[in-house]
């Protein structure tokens, strides 16, 4: 298996993801939200790029959806939830459809649609994602959402952990130079919180008094579901069997 990495959503193009498994990572905080919501039993997450798309999908059926996401890390006016994973509790999301729009994370997912499989990872579920990547057996490209088009330390260190989980179990792996660098950085900084504290985005979230989100998003492997994006919607991959072509709403 070849493993490569893209440092931000802005650098994704179809040729880089085609025929591969893409694992999208926005650990602060979009992919932590998605992983948490799916783990807490939501029916599906529909990731969209713009607020307008989110409103259009929910149009006339507003009560069927939870609208979630952020702009500038804050809840969007008229939406139900912000981009805090702690809001996506079982009692709020079980059996519900969530439409999510975030600045970087949902953009990265939508830019990866030409991949063979698209998995959603955070630190919260990285080990389970690594098992699924190995089972699929395709070449892998790890898509970091990044922050506002730029490299982001948080997604990079999370990717390093994912690579570590994969190469502990799969011996026939060839890392690109950037994937090797990413793994090296993780191996030398296993105290994730200690390292992530240097990230601009970590500081931005901290300034908004969202330390609880940061502590939660930095926990490794507390969730074992693997969300997968197929045909506009994200579910636990085991729930897609035979339903891959169903309409998103
Ligand atoms: O950019 C994104 O997709 C968000 O996850 C950013 S934030 O952490 O909610 O600010
Ligand atoms: Mg982020």
UniProtKB/TrEMBL annotation:
SUPFAM superfamilies reported for this sequence: ComB-like (SSF142823)
InterPro entries in the cross-refs: ComB-like, ComB-like_sf
UniProt keyword annotations, A-Z: Hydrolase, Magnesium
Family annotation (Pfam families): 2-ph_phosp (PF04029)
Cofactor: Mg(2+)
Coiled-coil residue windows: none
Enzyme Commission number(s) from the entry: 3.1.3.71
NCBIfam families: PRK00886.1-4 (NF002055)
HAMAP family tied to this protein: ComB
Protein name: Probable 2-phosphosulfolactate phosphatase
Natural source organism: Clostridium oceanicum
